[in-house]
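Retro notes - structure team

What went well: the batch runner handled both jobs without manual restarts.
What didn't: labels got mixed up in the shared folder, which is why I'm recording both outputs here explicitly, each with its sequence directly above its tokens.

Job 1
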Amino acid sequence: MIDNREKIYVEKINPRDKATIENITKPRNWDYQLFKEVNTALSIVPEGNFVPASNRPETIHLQGFSEDISKLQQLSKNDGNEYACPIFSDIDKKTFVRGKITVGNKTEVIIDSTPQPGREKYQKCVATIHVHPLDSNSYIAAHGFSGTDFKTFLSSRTQKFMIMTWGENKLLALKTSVTPNHLSRLAIDTRIKDISEDFLSKSTPSTVFKKVVDFNKEVCTEFGLTLYNADKQNRDLFSRVNVAT
């Protein structure tokens, strides 16, 4: 278990800003515009503040990312490698901005989170989108977020969500107010390694899908993340996954 004896929220938030965020996150179903507004607000307040856990939505419609996701999927389909790009929240223009697309290999990719030239003081990296190739030999990572995905995400104090896709399936992990923001990279790595050993160490091609699902659910439970899923039928509508066991 995570050692929570340390103070979790090291950055205080102005009561007025807190009330604003509480208010705008109240709807149970978020469209793309609201999602942008929430992330803009969270990018203005001190780092380490996320969506109030009590207000986590049931669904999030992310049609605004469709083109970006499709482009990454096509690139991955062409050569079988992972592709990724960062998503910035531009607090001046109050919109999302896609960063530079990077290519990795069949099992990993490094994100380039450099803001647009001249926009450094306005743009904060709030998310990443990446593709797991369908023909990856690493079947453990193919069907969900990997341990490395979670480690990178949880180690960032600016990132609010991450999206991963394979085939027609898409996952979204969203940080909440109960996601610890005080943990060291070592503490995160150690705990995720333990969970990985519990759920993935004995996976086989026939059991991997359930094992990866259980691994993702356990990490989300442990770190206060909310997990969402969208598939071919639902397309851009991400629905909350029950991670309780």
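Job 2
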Amino acid sequence: MDAMTLLHERSSMGKLMGPPPGPEQLEAIYRAALRAPDHGELRPWRFIEFTGEGLERLGELYAEAEFHADPHVDDATLAAARKKPLRAPMVIAVIAKVTPDVAKVPRVEQVISAGCAAHAILLAAHALGLGAMWRSGKYAFDPTVHKGLGLGEEDEIVAFVYLGQPGGRHRPVAEHRISDFVEHWS
């Protein structure tokens, strides 16, 4: 697949099946992620992989977050939280490993760099014939989840990237008129 086709055709795949990406696929995926723009060469990224029992542990962490938010939470909500990571055979948490007080590289640039790494993971997965979905939601911002993942005070979760074999068809993303998004100053 050529680069322009990849960029024009990549779409999220919500239905994912096993097996998870293999070692060679993961190496290619991470090599792509590590090419994200990186002002100051801070390498402001960290990745946490979840497979097998790790997915269940992540689900338990989500349930713990629900309980901390509401000690009277019902069992159905806790069960739903536990199932969320099980929607794919692998989840990669993409963390912005922020170095504070770097005058030439503000926090926002470091977080965006981690976002670029997450996007590269999606592109690499698509190029390899895998399915991928970028998810965030409330757990990405939850202090219980942050603590459970051992994140530092300055760290941010920018994505939970779900990876696996495509379990359905790629639905084409709606085309947009470029003119709706581009302003010209000449």
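One thing worth noting from job 2: The mean pLDDT is 93.
We'll revisit the folder naming next retro.
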